[in-house]
Write a structure and sequence with these properties.
Blueprint lengths: L6 H13 L12 H8 L4 H6 L1 H17 L7
Helix pairs in contact: 1-2, 1-4
Length: 74
Amino acid sequence: MSPAADEHDRIRASMDRILSGAPEHSDEALTIVALAVEAQVPRNALTQRHLDLKNDFYDQVLCRIRTAPDAGTG
């Protein structure tokens, strides 16, 4: 099965929704699985076809974790 022509754009929009706390199709989990559900694409779309988006998502999640007010405590 070939990917939809708008797959990249749907994933990018889904990243924005999840990271802003406004998902429409998934929970707010900061995971590739939640991102795939949110974008309504198979997980391998992120792990095989759109590695740039997967890496960007993980980079943004890591930045968010590092800048969280309670980061490094506990």
